[in-house]
From TrEMBL:
This is Arginine--tRNA ligase. Belongs to the class-I aminoacyl-tRNA synthetase family. Its EC number is 6.1.1.19. Keywords: Aminoacyl-tRNA synthetase, ATP-binding, Cytoplasm, Ligase, Nucleotide-binding, Protein biosynthesis. The gene is argS. It comes from Candidatus Chloroploca asiatica. GO terms for molecular function: arginine-tRNA ligase activity; ATP binding. Gene3D superfamilies: Arginyl tRNA synthetase N-terminal domain (3.30.1360.70), HUPs (3.40.50.620), Isoleucyl-tRNA Synthetase, Domain 1 (1.10.730.10). It catalyses: tRNA(Arg) + L-arginine + ATP = L-arginyl-tRNA(Arg) + AMP + diphosphate.
């Protein structure tokens, strides 16, 4: 799909080339500064120098020589000093962009760039027998947005939930179950109880070698495939995944696979051997498999001297498996910043082993979460926040906002709106800025009905939808009218901004930066606010203008809805 802005850019290039003074390849265009009333500029310095001309003169000559045909998106062409400035034709822009939005609907903003290419996104990745804490919450939300973006770019996306379901700690989990039994209940509450009994057992085992031995035995039995150990382990996997699933459903998260670390157990001996064979790793005197002096990275292990394997070993096997199974062009890891070194070591090792030459390996690292007092959330501090409780908290706070702002909605609808607003606030808080940055859990800001919050965006969408409903009810002109009447400056600004969604999606994908789409949504809501303040819609001067403005409202609603759904945010029809 060739969207309006791309066509405008192409037309500008071709119009300059058609003067015979420059070749398409030589024409580098820039975006004028916001105070310049133009949409694209051609700085003529370089071309002037090549031709031994003075830039302002060349700009003037070009402006005089340029011919624009009748249905071009180019409006005005003007020489300003050394620049050749191009503005879009407001009438034709309005007609083109709005029709484009109506023709493509929910697909507006998507591309086919990734056709026949695959991306694996590794995200969420909670640890079994534990609740999902803020790190997993961030990974889940940012990861899902990246999945949505890459699907919108036309890639085949494979989501993989790399569950933390293996390791020595499961010996303690199983031993604590032998000791205290399985905790009652389901969901986060049951996991919390399981964490507590784990902690009790681990503490007791510190000065009781018999308990320590018991945990070791369970760990061994699990590794050797003992049926009772496997069954208890499976129970803990199921308990954790049931709790996760309920939260995934609320967040609109769907992950294609959940191979998990345990899945790679049978492949580990093979990858360790391979690392030894190709000379990247060596076995030291104590029997550990060591990787040293790899691109100046700190030394790390693939196998301990007690022959145990590590998180790293399983991540190596995971890449081997993903390459064989999916043959992807990219693998994206959505994991917190503290694991940056782990991933650098992993990526360097894979390259050194001759794997993943063609594949792009990317770590999308995210920052820490702070509470409203500015303290980082941590289990040790005791201020950790878990996913289910966080969503419940958000929704009950959102319920109060809905009660205040929309007291007349039916109760059941209030509940549905509160769910969308509460969950949306949590999701947006993870997405509205660069993932690298830290975020704060500040409900005041997250649920504000003005400013850069999901709530504000949802209100803007609901406002569009309510205008369209009222237009139907009062029996006057509906959406349609004469779109070329949309030339008020605030209309043109809004339309130009709507035209930018496709490039925002591209940029967000290329930078693994959902906030680019979040920014686009925020500006849309603001530009819509300005338009709504300056241009009467239902009471427009003429029926044709009213119809056109309602079309603009409908197009804004559609585009905003598309932007929000890329972020994984629901938009209620009324609020
Ligand atoms: N389960 C891990 C944790 O909680 C995250 C796993 C991330 N993915 C990976 N391939 N290492 O820290």
């Amino acid at each position: 799909m060739n969207y309006a802005l791309e066509r405008f850019t192409t037309e500008v290039r071709e119009a300059i080339a058609a003067t015979g003074q420059a070749e398409v390849g030589q024409i580098e265009l820039t975006t004028p500064r916001p105070n310049i009333p133009a949409d694209l500029a051609f700085p003529t310095f370089r071309l002037a120098k090549e031709q031994g001309l003075v830039a302002p003169q060349l700009a003037t000559d070009l402006a005089a020589a340029i011919r624009v045909d009748d249905n071009s998106l180019i409006g005005k062409v003007e020489a300003v000093g050394p620049f050749l400035n191009f503005s879009m034709h407001p009438e034709r822009l309005a007609v083109t962009v709005l029709n484009e939005i109506f023709a493509t609907g929910t697909c507006y903003g998507t591309h086919r760039d990734g056709h026949a290419q695959r991306v694996v996104v590794d995200y969420s990745a909670p640890n079994i027998a534990k609740r999902m804490h803020v790190g997993h919450i961030r990974s889940t939300i940012i990861g899902q947005a990246i999945v949505n973006l890459y699907r919108a770019l036309g890639y085949e996306v494979i989501g993989d939930n790399h569950l933390g379901d293996w390791g020595k700690q499961f010996g303690v989990v199983l031993a604590s179950i032998e000791h205290e039994g399985k905790p009652e209940g389901v969901g986060e509450a049951a996991l919390e109880a399981l964490e507590a009994q784990y902690a009790r057992f681990a503490a007791a085992a510190k000065d009781d070698s018999a308990l320590d031995e018991l945990a070791r035995q369970w760990s061994l039995r699990l590794e050797q495939g003992d049926p009772q150990a496997r069954e208890l382990w499976q129970w803990s996997v199921d308990l954790t995944m049931e709790a996760a699933q309920r939260n995934y459903d609320r967040l609109g998260v769907k992950i294609d696979h959940a191979y998990g670390e345990s899945f790679y157990e049978p492949m580990l001996a093979g990858v360790i051997q391979e690392a030894l064979d190709c000379g990247v790793a060596y076995r030291d005197a104590g029997g550990a498999v060591v990787i040293e002096n790899l691109q100046n990275l700190p030394t790390f292990l693939l196998q301990r001297s007690d022959s145990g394997t590590l998180y790293m070993t399983r991540d190596v096997a995971t890449i081997v498996f993903r390459m064989r199974e999916f043959n992807p062009q990219k693998i994206v890891y959505v994991i917190g910043e503290p694991q940056a070194l782990h991933l650098r070591q992993l990526f360097a090792l894979m390259r050194a082993m001759g794997y993943a030459q063609e594949v792009e390996l990317t770590h999308v690292a995210f920052g820490t979460v702070f509470d409203a007092q500015g303290q980082p959330l941590s289990t040790r501090r005791g201020n950790m926040v878990y996913l289910e409780a966080l969503l419940d908290d958000a929704v009950s706070r959102a319920r109060a906002v809905v009660e205040r702002k929309s007291p007349d909605l039916p109760e059941a609808e209030k509940d549905a709106v509160a769910e969308a607003v509460g969950v949306g606030a949590v999701v947006y808080n993870d997405l509205y800025q660069d993932p690298k940055r830290n975020i704060t859990l500040d409900w005041e800001r997250m649920l504000a009905t003005e400013g850069n919050s999901a709530t504000y965006l949802q209100y803007s969408y609901a406002r569009c939808r309510s205008l369209l409903r009222r237009a139907r009810e009062d029996g006057g002109e509906g959406p349609g009218g004469e779109l070329s009447l949309l030339v008020h400056p605030s209309e043109t600004r809004l339309i130009k901004h709507l035209a930018r969604l496709p490039e925002a999606v591209r940029e967000a994908g290329a930078r693994y930066a959902p906030f680019v789409v979040a920014d686009w949504c925020y500006t849309t809501a603001r530009e819509f606010g300005v338009f709504f303040e300056q241009c009467p819609v239902l009471k427009a001067e003429t029926a044709l203008l009213r119809g056109a403005r309602l079309s603009l409202v409908a197009a804004t609603a559609q585009a905003l809805h598309n932007g929000l759904s890329l972020l994984g945010i629901q938009a209620p029809e009324r609020m």
